[in-house]
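Issue 218. Parser rejects a valid record. Input:
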Amino acid sequence: MTRLSLADIADEKPVRLNIEIPARLHRELLDYCAALGAGQTAGLPPPERVVPVMIERFIATDRSYSRQKKQRRSVAIDKSC
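Output the parser choked on:
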């Protein structure tokens, strides 16, 4: 019988964050959304749909964070052995 690992099931329930950003940054974000939506028939993407994707991409491409994350994993593996 195959053993199921429930730890691999990701928690996909959205989490609401309420943040304040400077007005200047909000205007830039709206301009960015307008640039993304230019030429699309569906209209402009709202900032609340764009920001999570931006954060995911930022985290995925942050080399320093990736190195630290890799080091933490190797330390955790060493401790479990």
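Fixed in the parser; the record now loads. DSSP finds three helices and no strands in the chain.
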